[in-house]
Amino acid sequence: QVQLVESGGGLVQPGESLRLSCAASGFNFGAYAMKWGRQAPGKELEWLAHIGGGGNAYRYEDIAKDRFFISRDNTKNTMYLQMLKLKPEDTGVYYCARSVDGVRGQGTQVTVSS
Question: Please, which residues have CB within 8 angstroms of residue 43's CB and are 6 or more apart in sequence?
Answer without folding.
Answer: 92
